[in-house]
Amino acid sequence: MAGDQPIFTVLSDVELKGEGHPEGTGAARTAASDNESGIFSGECELCEEHQAELDWFCASEQKLICSHCAIVGPCRGHAVTPLSTRVSTVRVCEVCVSFGTGDELRGRAREQVLAQVSAAREALEEEEQRLLEEVQREEERVEQCLLTQRAHWKQALANLSQTRSRLVHTLTHTPDSQLAVREAEGVGEPCDTEQLNLNPTCSDSRLLRGLWATAVLLGQNGETSYFKFDERTVGPLLTLSQDLFTLTFTNKKSRQPCAYDPARFDSWPNALGSQALSSGTHCWVVDVGQSAAFKVGVCYASLERKGSGNGARLGYNSQSWVLSNYDGDYSFCHAEKKVPLQVVKKPQKIGVLLDWPSQTLLFYEPDSNAILYSITQTFTAPLLPACAVTDQSITIVHK
To answer: Which ranges form a coiled coil (predicted)?
Structure first.
């Protein structure tokens, strides 16, 4: 057919040489431009057999056919394509030929992507270097500040140590009368105050007692006496850990019946230490944690153990001395009398110091050695560590 050859030339050139065959691109472009106008203008020939427009292409026969040939004619069952679709393919191929082959396009795109990645990498490296330099400058500044602070506190600690040594020397080598009474020109006669007793005997000076207590605690060097709870004394609503250091409050439902023992408290949730104290200086620490209700102190071994009266209640008789906390209300309790205590920060631990030679009992905060309360008392019998708890747990700790 006279009109077939130009179309065949275009299709074969584009399909077989359009990509990967650059030698055919010029011919393909020329053939496509020469024949597209004829195809779309309706000037193509009619099918000789059916007298219908040749608007289909048979890939099997490699020729133009009409729709009747494709459906009921000799090309039925062959691979046929509408001519409009085929021409679109030709145009796409022309675009590809105009802008380069697929390999060329991929190469250009790859070069653009690599260029962008390279630029991004360089920017990130520059930013990283800037941040590293900034961090290094900050580290040097902080290090210098720390060195300055360290030198300052080292000097301050040395000054405090010298002051402490002088105070201890003064307290241990100066008579009480010289410590308490001094002449003051233009000030008037010295008088007693609530903070400092200026009597020549100095038997009840809070200031001197606090200085003495601080010196004793520092002299202990963090050493504590080794105590455990006596499991025979543990009262109801309490459980004792296997190591005998921790008391835990339990409710009535989980309470386990206790065997009778004359040493056991049968009503109050008390427990006593296993070692009696009647000489020397002893201190121990009780970790009260988050407990909101506890008592820590000492008592005579003769303290009552049975009944719910005050005779067996710590702090409510003449045989026990305890620091008590109930829901943030701290107080010193003895013989049914309470002395309210001003506690600025809730202590996590309570320290107890008993100095038998001076008959002094002192309660303190171990982390800061702050004195919470102290008392001088004539003890007539050996003392036992005593505790009570009605909220969570308390534990005797040892360094």
So the answer is: 110-148
Say if CB 206 and CB 169 are below 8 A apart.
no
Q: Hey, what are 329's tokens?
A: 């209300």
Are residues 245 and 385 both part of a single domain?
A: yes
The domain boundary, picked from 51, 81, 104, lies at: 104
Tokens of 347: 């202590």
What is the residue range of 73's domain? 4-104
Residue 254 φ/ψ, nearest 5 degrees = -95, 5
d(CA 301, CA 299): 6
Residue 78 and residue 65 in contact, taking contact as beta carbons nearer than 8 Å = no
Residue 293 near residue 391 (C-beta atoms within 8 A): yes
198 is a domain residue: no
Could you tell me which residues come within 8 angstroms of residue 62 by beta carbon, excluding any fewer than 6 positions away?
A: 8
What pTM was computed for the model? 0.51
Residue 377 lies in a domain: yes
